[in-house]
Amino acid sequence: PLPSHGSLSTGGVPCGRLPCPTASYRNWRWPVKTTQVTMEDYPGLYCIVHQGTLVSASASLAQEKHEEVGRLDAGTMVEVVEVLRLPEDQKRVRAKLLEPQGWISLVDLGDTYRWAQRVQLEPEGNRLRSPKAVGNRSVAANALASRKTVDLDEDYARLGKMSLTSSDENLQPPGPSLKDVFEQKHERSLPMLLYIVLLLPIFGGVSLLQLVVWSGMGFGAEALDLLDEGYDYKMFPLALVTVTVLILYLLDFFWPPHLTRQHLVLWDGGKSAGRVIIVILFALVLLAGFLRAKDTPSLPMMFTMLLTPAGMVVVYKATRRYEPLDACESERIFKGKDVGLKMKLLKNIVGEEEDFKRFCIAVFVSFAVVFAIVLILWVIWAFVSERGLEGVDDPSLTAEGRDRIYMLWVTPLAVAICNFVFALFALVRIYMQRGYSETDEVRQKLVAEGLKMTQDVLDHRVKIARSKSMDAVEKELTLRSHYVKESAKHMKQLSMAIRAVGCVFMLTLGVLYAGVQLFYADSGIANMVMMLLGIFFFIFVGLVFVSLKRVVLAMGQWISELPIWKSVIGVKDSPAVRAMILICFLPLAVVIMPLSIVNQGVRRLRGIYSESMEPTDSTRTDASGDQSEMMFHMVKAGQQDFCLTPRVRVGLRKVVAWDWLPIIHWIYILAAVYLCYSICPLLLNVVLSYLGDIFEALDFPIILVLTFIVGIVAFLLPPVPGMTVYIFGGLIVSDACPESMGGFWAGAVINIALCWFLKLAACAVQQKFIGEMLGGSLWVRQTVGVHKTAIRCIESILRRPGLSVGKAAILCGGPDWPTSVLAGVLHLSLFQCELGTIPIIGFVAPCALTGSFYLRQNISSVWQRSANLMIVVSVMVNMILWGLAAWAIQGELEQRGDELTLPLAKNVDLEWLEYRTKQLKAATHFSWEDVSCVVRIIYLMGAILEVVVVQLLYWFSSTLFGSFAVDDKISCLKWYGTLEEEVPGEVCVVFTPSAAAVLVLYFLSFPMYLVYSVWRMARLRLPLQKASEELKKTEASWKTEFIRSAKEAREVFLQNHPSKTPSKTTSIIESKAIGEMPTVTEMATWETSPE
């Protein structure tokens, strides 16, 4: 039953008001006498107000139900082209529709009940009351006719002046109009001045606290002395935190399995207690940091600075007037038919955006004001009053004391810089606010929905007026799709902006890091700057993730769709990666297993495994349901009797289910590689030092020639990295350059040029004499994967003539020996490869300077810092080259992915070898259970010993090996001895007794691998022979079928891409009979062909 007065129970729409065109109504009739016929019905635009309005084929009321065409929902917009008043006894007005074609009832003249209500477009302030005015061109159409471009602000302003109304003055649409949304001031938002009033005392108070307590302007020296007295107790807070975290873990505080979708709680609904515990733990960590002020005097100031962003977050949360709905709720409202609710949602979204923008402006103003005040105070105190550095020239003052005075003097400047950086962060966020608002998909859809209603009205009015300005109307009709497309456009723009800002930010951090490392590496100021840089970095990342969440999610989605990323994700389940995980984290099992056993016992004592804790079906399928589902299966199966917790037990089952044979095989390989990585550089230092002693007595030109020869020989060895060769050149050439030729600096420049030429010559030797020779072997080509998409993509980039970013990044950033040899295997042009390798000078120069600067480390510590800085620069350059190479490969895949994935007939032999390898592997496959029990135990024990060796080499390398460096004299070398025997510059030990024990342990594990290898060869001999004979019978037919399928795929590709022309290779294949195999001569022709 509906009330006779007031609002309707179904939607809260006041009686006598026009329902929204897309409102949702059930089958009900308007209350009698609530809507009067106040005008003559005539053709025009109508809104259906009766749910399920019947459309019939004829105007006859008697045949209405027998000639039903369809039914219309309430809120549907229809165009009436003819109005017919039936005889007096029927008391009905009928209307003919343009679409769907048919007749509907408009109004019952007896009780004035309406099935449809006429609507019209009404410009604000100029109501069109006369029916004749309907035929005139709309104000919006006239305005659009003169527009040349589409501007969002103009669209919003125009939309705000247009509303759907009835001809009755009392009829208005429910909810706020678009004008309310985009133009009116939101009454719930706080004014910017109030935000400033709230934020300024917090920012200023924290800065004042830092100045008074931790700087020389206040009581910084006294505060640090007070903290120094508690230095001996610095470990107690950390120990208390560790014990507390361990107890909370055993009590399932962090992720309770019996409390669905709750975290950081000890009992159901205990969020407040959980927050108190987290605050206490954070306070203990802060206390531990304060007590370490003797080692790092700037640490208390850094911790205090973190109160500023924390206070900003608290103010925003406390004053937030617009609570955002989750994505599911917003999508549900949008898909509904309640336009009033949609407009309120849009108003909430826009209000939240405006409120956040005002908040960001207030944050920027507050930080800028505090920055200016603190900087002025520091300048007056430090330079005008010349205070803060009293006693720094005291000869009795220690280096630590002098460093503390400087640190207290510069602390106010650090506080000002922090406020300045935070203000810049806020300014960047303000700049991105408008574009970020346009990335809200729900917002754009709601705007488009409002445009759709306006477009329906305009479409009807123009049809009646027969206006000649159809171009303007067509432009208006494209606005809806325009607004929807704006979201993706702004998302892309913001993604690029974030990348640009991030790159500039990281470059700035890198410059600051370089400067600090160069001049203040061992001072407290350096530690302060390093911590500031770290804090700025994490705050910047947090700002991007929190305030630009939609862009971050879009960028993450974009990255997840990249073929390179998919390839990386696909590798995670490979045996090599699993072997690496086991080598790195297997020792943690000694800690995880006991904790899991104790945790399981605590759960049983607490009664968590009772049947009452069994989750419902809905709980098992929610977003956090994997743990609940695990708990459900555990309870149903009675698994509470196990000694391990469900999560650890499930993870252990997954590990046990792995295919262990290839994993253990890779453990042996990776352990051998890591052993070589640990020992070879030390042995190489010995060799280079020996050569350096020989070169000392030679003339400078001879030294250059011998250095070049040694470098070429070193480059021909795959394990030797180029960086070692460049550093060796710096150690030899820079110091050997005579003063008559310019001395040290001339020698450093000559060494850079020599190393650059050495790299180019080594690339040529590796490519022509190693790569092209190996390229004649099908096994090598198949192992390298020249027929696979990744290598074909790299080949496509490298074959392109000229110098490009992608080519230079691949040739300069890739590993020295493999990259050049791969170019030879692919038979690439030597000139083009040398051209692409020219930019390697950017990597060679810092490496060569590293060796040169090490020669002068005894003169001043600046040289040592400069050498370390050059190493960092070299690593950063290499990482940048890797990133550019990955970017170029990804771009090539996106542009030519269809072509690069086509099977090539010239690779038929390689594809056959690939197929043959897979078939032999499948035919001779056996599992871990098939291995003999004795062999299995021996094989596994050897792998465990390998893991132990790697762990010892990683954690105790400084005690296993000596410190013999490349710049030490060979006369100081002592191959075996203890570290106590080392004397810097006189005695340098290479291997200690502990290192000898580790090497013995490794060589004991190697025979265990040989046992398995012998057993495997004996096991596979007969199956392998049988499978090979079977495959040999099908080789010819398989190759014929592959060539046919490659040809068909090529033809389909050319049909879909008419602009592509067949290559020379394809033409040769097409000219031969399908069943005829290519000759060796033709294969050689293909491999040397540019195509």
Note the main attributes of this structure.
single chain, 1091 residues, mainly alpha, two-stranded antiparallel sheet, 40 helices, 10 strands, 64% helix, globular, disordered N terminus
Describe the structure concisely:
By secondary structure, this protein is mainly alpha-helical. It contains 40 helices and ten strands. The longest helix has 64 residues, at 993-1056.
Structure in words:
The protein has 1091 residues and is mainly alpha-helical. Helix content is 64%, strand content 5%. A six-stranded antiparallel β-sheet has the order 6-5-4-1-7-8, covered by helices on one side. Helix 11 packs antiparallel against helix 12 and helix 30 crosses helix 32. It is globular and about 125 Å long.
Topology:
Elements: E1 44-48, E2 53-56, E3 68-72, E4 77-85, E5 92-97, E6 102-108, E7 116-121, H1 139-145, H2 152-160, E8 164-166, H3 178-182, H4 192-214, H5 220-229, H6 235-250, H7 271-291, H8 299-305, H9 307-319, H10 327-335, H11 339-384, H12 399-437, H13 441-465, H14 470-477, H15 479-519, H16 524-547, H17 549-560, H18 563-571, H19 575-585, H20 589-606, H21 617-620, H22 625-636, H23 646-656, H24 660-695, H25 700-715, H26 722-736, H27 743-774, H28 778-784, H29 789-799, H30 805-813, H31 816-825, H32 830-837, H33 841-854, H34 861-900, H35 908-923, H36 933-955, H37 957-960, E9 973-976, E10 988-991, H38 993-1056, H39 1064-1071, H40 1080-1088
